Amino acid sequence: MIQRVEGSQSNLFEESSDGSTKRGAARKDGKKRASSKKAQAVEFGLKAPSQVVKNFVLDTNVLIHDPGCLNRFKEHHLCIPVDVLAELDRFKSEQSERGANARRVHRQLTELFSSSTAITAGVPTEGGGTVRMVIYDPTACPKNSEMLNHFHRVFPDRERVDHRIMAATLLLMEHNAAPVILVTKDINLQLKARAVGIDCEDYLNDKVDPREVTTYDIRRIPVDPAEMQRFASSGELVLPHERRQEVVLNQYVLLEASEKQTMPARLASEGRLVRLQIPEALKIPDGIALKPLNLGQRCLIDALLNPEISLVTCYGHAGTGKTLVAVAAGLHEMFNRKYTGLTVSRPVVAMGEQLGFLPGTMEEKMRPWLQPIHDALDLLMRPPKATGPRRKQKPGAENTAKKPYEELLEQGIIEVEALAYIRGRSIPNRFFVLDEAQQLTPQEAKTVVTRMSRDSKLVLVGDPAQIDNPYVDSRSNGLVYTRNRLKGLPFVAHVPLNRGERSELAEAGATLL
């Protein structure tokens, strides 16, 4: 009995010793795994330097869209998945704006991380935040992560870059108490991210207020009949700031004394509203005389002919005459020797499906893209039709004769070219019209504006509602970005056009379709 008890006690002691040893080993193993997991989180950049501010995960398209975005998130933490670097590496050799932006991002990241041995730990930015690289390794991810397991069930393809960026964002959400937000301009990725519980935002730094692109109406300012009479007689009217709030320098307004008593005006310096200074028609030698057909075109011509304004931006729906009026004003000024030449350009962005490579020389390849500009020049510089009987011409004579503007093209007085070749140029004393400017990214618009030398005039025209460039939208394209950032400067003016003049059919299509 005693021996049984002793044996029993001995067995109990042995079992207890063995159990405690196992539990101790398990605790040590658990601590080791926890320590390893914590070290792995730091090594892979999953742990933020602090848990106070937000963590923003940047997609590739954000960096391509604005290479300077690394310093625009203030005190917050920026996370760049390593898969983003792989995508940037694919673009860096392109001889395009996208390739130039990819190379610029690479240089910025190299400079930021040059003084840091662990780029996943985070380096400070100018705004007081940090930027760090984040690594997603599916073989080293926690096996017991329910959130990540659910994600892989929904999106099983682990090699797709979008999926790897979302997986890295989910890991960041697990290791940080502060909010984690994915920033991307890819609408499809935004929908995918929200489907698995990831907070997602568009890059809003260069987006304008929605009100700036929802209406193209000219601002109306009510005045009394005596003020209207004084403005009509003297050409000037000074109004206190309270009566012209939100009207910036060189903005066009419509003074309204009654429904039938209205006059357009431009806000000049010191709060003065001044009368428009426009000719009866834009006269082009041996061509047509173009008369303004509505209020918007009158304001646009005033801005185009004003020597003190060196940048004009213009919004307008299809058929409002923005390109035709701008080219006509450029020809008018050029023939009056205000400028040494006229340059008309547009970005090469196709609408709809591509037709493949075009044959011929560079000029022949670019002709389909630039045909609308040739059409405008042909219309404006075509001699007026003669009255009376026409003389009989030899067959094919009309086809062999050069058009008036083609001789000026050969002399270099008029240039019609694609925008792709403007980088590195300096453009002095020319009237430069950029058509379809809504297709530009903000960085491309900056490139164009910085090419202008002294005594040159830049005209950006376009319709923010007609965009084929996948990298911009109606609120973030180069046209509205330039207008928003430069408005109020003494040498900048903006004119909206809201009335179509092409035809009743075109006007109905622009407003109803």
UniProtKB/TrEMBL annotation:
Keyword terms, alphabetized: ATP-binding, Nucleotide-binding
Pfam families: PhoH, PIN_4
Tree of life domain: Bacteria
GO cellular component term, pick one: cytosol
Signal peptide (residue range): none
Compositionally skewed regions (Polar residues) per UniProt: 1-14
InterPro entries: P-loop_NTPase, PhoH, PhoH2-like, PIN-like_dom_sf, PIN_dom
Domain PIN, first and last residues per copy: 54-191
Region (Disordered) location: 1-40, 382-402
CDD domains: PIN_VapC_PhoHL-ATPase
Keyword Protein transport assigned: no
Keyword ATP-binding attributed: yes
Gene3D superfamilies: 5'-nuclease, P-loop containing nucleotide triphosphate hydrolases
A GO MF term: ATP binding
Family of this protein: In the N-terminal section; belongs to the PINc/VapC protein family.
Record's protein name: PhoH family protein
